[in-house]
Amino acid sequence: MTNVSEAYADREPVTRRVHDRPWVADLETDEHAADRPLTVAEAVDAVEQTGRGEHVDLVTHERHGDPASYLYEPVRSVDRPVDIAREGRCSCGGYVTRVTVGPGN
Length: 105
What we know:
It is a single chain. By secondary structure, this protein is an alpha+beta fold. The protein has a single domain, classed as Translation Initiation Factor IF3 (2-Layer Sandwich). Helices cover 26% and strands 25% of the residues. The longest helix has 13 residues, at 36-48. It is globular. The model has no long low-confidence stretch (mean pLDDT 87).
């Protein structure tokens, strides 16, 4: 599995700071399409960078299929309370998953 430091070795990361308002993590790049572990690592990082009480929309590439099959479990494993909602598919064919971070931690 790709870890976050490896994922960012040759490019700018999806997240660089804590987001104190709703935001979107674009996980549909060519790099993400070719590397599901990168997608998962950056999705987890995005959730960790989302402020309490806020949400992040994780937009994943269609190549990986339904994110419930590979993304929800790692996202739930973060050390924060999260609520995961399937928002459907975007116009480009990818999938949108909304993760709301609870008020704890």
